[in-house]
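Researcher: I'd like a structural prediction for the single chain below. Treat it as a standalone chain; there are no partners to consider.
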Amino acid sequence: MKRIAKYISLMAVVLLCVGGGVFLWHSGFFAAASSQESMQAYIQRFAPYSHLCFFLIQFLSVVLAPIPSNITALVGGVMFGTWVSFFLTFAAVLLGSILVFVLARNLGQSFVNRVVGERVSAKYLDVIHAKTDIFLVLAFLFPFFPDDLLCILAGLTSISLRRFAVIALLTRPWGLLFASALGGATFSIPVWGMALIGVAGAALFLVGMKYGDRVEGAVLRALGKKSEGL
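Model: Treating it as a single chain, here is the predicted structure.
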């Protein structure tokens, strides 16, 4: 039964990657990804199905990973407004994240190495194995890591699909909302403000990686004591 599931998953990912890649290539997506203006013009070509086109682009960006989802979310904010861009992007990203996680879980290390490359796999896999929950939470919250590739690598760890889905559901929306709001002109941030956010994010990430286990342990112990008291 597991072998059949692997074959079905393999066929699905091959068809998805080949079909999606061919569509994006022939439709001029990769050329349009060079700038915000050209990407906006590309999506507008598919009117009155621009929303569906945008959703598919965001979904394929997770599976095929040609460009970060935050960039296209910003374009979506310009075109559709903050909230439409956010909800379309978040739905597509969450669906794509779960799909690549399941594919990695079913197809194993050799599949992951072919998709992300052995160099990237070796760079992140050890720390994901050692600090799965903490690393994923921090990596999803801060825009310094290849979120989509980490979703694939997470499929090789012992984390359950339900736990992974909850982490993605709680952490992945915020960067997408920020990008959508920035594109939708809900607010604007000067260059110095962006620099401060980047420095603060990097500092929080390093602190979390060093002391995350202690914090998590303290929280779990506190919750355990409360439950015993009840």
